[in-house]
């Protein structure tokens, strides 16, 4: 497939890349109707890129059957309204099966989660992503990079072998490292997505990113869209006004090694009556003493 055919996918990455939550029912199963309602709320709010099975969707806490279900619900609900980037990962055969399932359903891209293996070599990182990308040459492939040791040259090597590797979700919390990595890999060659969401978006955009991921978008799509509009127009003071607006919410999510990253988002949604607050281990619901602050922030955004 020519690079021209990936233009739609590239454009979708240069945007707010929403990572929807996976709401659970009282019995602990995926709450399918609630999930559809939350997806529609994102779509109606102007979001046009969705990542089912991302970390905010509790990817690593879902069963294989649940991951397939979440993919199916998202693609069905999105229809022609959004580009869908399906999260895949785990061992290579599992990731390939997930990517092929996404392709069969009409997904446009897959995001390959960072390998969770404790021993990752740089050459092995290339081999892992190459095996997945080669299995679905028609799909755009977006590696999710959280490994500060990985060099830009390795990403270029991967894309030389697999031209469908078109974008990168870069989530190393170091703007200078990101700037160097992107230039070593090829700044124009890939779409650079700030993988640490709104708090890092202004600094990463200044270094070449054109999209950012968001979990906050589940709660307040307009806030995330305000930030990307400011960044696209190069209005950093306006972007930083949004940054100040979301700062406390994101600090709560990032505290204690991001222990409550998903928890805070679901708590905000619960405070708005949109879904249950339950998360799965190793996450844990917020203690009652901390719920009021999250509710106050969410209420302020929905005015």
Question: What does this protein structure show overall?
Answer:
With 303 residues, the protein is an alpha/beta fold. The chain has helices spanning 7-13, 32-44, 64-78, 92-105, 122-135, 152-161, 175-185, 197-206, 221-232, 236-258, 261-271, 288-301; strands spanning 16-18, 49-50, 83-88, 109-112, 140-145, 167-170, 191-194, 211-214. The protein has one domain (7-220): TIM Barrel, CATH 3.20.20.70. Helices cover 51% and strands 11% of the residues. Strands 1-8-7-6-5-4-3-2 form an eight-stranded parallel sheet, sandwiched between helices. Helix 9 (221-232) packs across helix 10 (236-258) and helix 11 crosses helix 12 (288-301). The protein is globular, with a radius of gyration of 18 Å. The model has no long low-confidence stretch (mean pLDDT 96). Pyruvate binds at residue 56. This is Dihydrodipicolinate synthase. One of its GO terms (molecular function) is 4-hydroxy-tetrahydrodipicolinate synthase activity.
